[in-house]
Write a structure and sequence with these properties.
Layout: H1 3-9, E1 11-17, E2 20-25, H2 34-42, H3 57-66, H4 73-88, E3 97-102, H5 110-121, E4 124-129, H6 134-145, E5 149-154, H7 158-165, E6 172-177, H8 187-200, E7 206-212, H9 217-223, H10 230-246, E8 255-262, E9 267-274, E10 278-282, E11 287-291, E12 296-303, H11 307-317, E13 319-326, E14 332-339
Parallel strand pairs: 2-5, 3-4, 3-6, 4-5, 6-7
Antiparallel strand pairs: 1-2, 7-14, 8-9, 9-12, 10-11, 13-14
Helix pairs in contact: 3-10, 4-5, 7-8
Bound molecules: N,N-dimethyl-L-histidine (AVI).
GO biological process, one term: methylation
Protein name: L-histidine N(Alpha)-methyltransferase
Keywords: Methyltransferase, Transferase
């Protein structure tokens, strides 16, 4: 049996109509459950909750709200750069490309890329990859607005989606990884992830990555602790999710949002701070959690980069840099690479 066929058998295919279909892994895929991961990450001295758990429906909506906040510069700035690409990306493309997007979410920024493709090719083939079911909602919205769009959605982890894409067919892929989501990986996981992308790519494929840049500490800290408290709500929502899904009794009033910019490691660090000595029961993880006053639960890193570090990061994995675009203030970057 060919690799491609075998891979497709691991997924269930849902054909909605001739312009929309989804692939979703069979439930038999062996992964640690939410309850097991929470047991592992909270039953230790340096407690953490993996940031992928932010994105239930409420968390995804709160993140969309964060993207519109005056203090949260990354989204606005990336959109400003993407607009520059309207004239500057087409020279790297031809009509045989499709668009693949990792972590497509609400697909707002994607529209700028889809506009470029529509103008260039007339029609567009789009493969969003996202673990969240928000993918189905955003795909339906896109189809309403783009008459010549065909969507194949892959509802899976980034790694699963990339594996699915590998050897899928001969069509060239422009892989998008926008929003500086890469910054949420630890440096080691990030390196591995870039290797995974590189190994998925065929000669001729392109990869466009958005990365946030090192800048004034105050700008960074207010972007992750906004005056309306939306980022705080986003951070605390992870505890509500655990309450709802794992039958836990976190009292959200006993925690506060805590974030800081760690200059030496060039990253925003986000935590939930316990305001009192407290015990919390997480029934489905079989865990009684004891927290001391001021104890921190780590929830997210958001790394920021210098241009020289971006070059090194991509170079080390075997990418050839085609172009880096920046905004006027050098706050954010978009880099286009190919495989050497
Ligand atoms: C998804 N990710 C790129 C966001 C960031 O900026 O690191 C998540 C976020 N956390 C707080 N605000 C936004």
């Amino acid at each position: 049996m060919s690799n491609t066929l075998q891979k497709n058998l691991d997924y269930k295919k849902y054909v909605i109509d001739d312009r929309l279909r989804y692939f979703k892994p069979h439930a038999s895929k062996i992964e640690k459950t939410f309850a097991e991961e929470i047991f592992f990450s909270l039953n230790r001295c340096c407690k953490f909750i993996h940031p992928k758990f932010f994105y239930d429906k409420k968390g995804s909506d709160l993140f969309e709200k964060i993207c519109t906040l005056p203090e949260y510069y990354p989204t606005k700035t990336e959109i400003e750069i993407l607009k520059q690409l309207q004239d500057e990306l087409p020279p790297y493309l031809d009509k045989t490309f499709r668009v693949v997007e990792l972590g497509s979410g609400a697909s707002v920024k994607t529209r700028i890329i889809l506009d470029i493709f529509t103008k260039l090719c007339g029609h567009v083939e789009y493969f969003p990859i996202d673990i969240s079911e928000i993918l189905t909602e955003s795909s339906e919205n896109l189809l309403k607005d783009y008459e010549h769009l065909h969507i194949t959605g892959i509802i899976d982890t980034y790694e699963g989606g990339l594996e699915f894409l590998k050897n899928y067919d001969d069509k060239k892929n422009l892989i998008l990884f926008l929003g500086s989501s890469f910054g949420n990986f630890s440096p080691m996981d990030g390196h591995e992830f870039l290797q995974k992308i590189n190994s998925t790519m065929k000669p001729g494929d392109l990869f466009l990555i958005g990365l946030d840049l090192v800048k004034d500490k105050q700008i960074l800290e207010s972007a992750y602790d906004d005056s309306q408290g939306v980022t705080a709500e986003f951070n605390l929502n992870i505890l509500s999710r655990i309450n709802d899904e794992l039958d836990a009794d976190f009292n959200l009033n006993n925690f506060s949002h805590h974030s800081l910019y760690n200059e030496s490691d060039q990253r925003i660090e986000m935590y939930l701070k316990s305001l009192v000595n407290q015990s919390v029961v997480i029934s489905k993880s079989n865990l009684l959690l004891n927290l001391k006053k001021d104890e921190l639960i780590h929830t997210e890193y958001s790394h920021k980069y210098r241009l020289s570090q971006i070059r090194k990061l991509l170079d080390d994995v075997g990418f050839e840099i085609k172009h880096t675009w920046l905004d006027d203030k050098n706050h954010f970057s978009l880099t286009l690479v190919s495989k050497i």
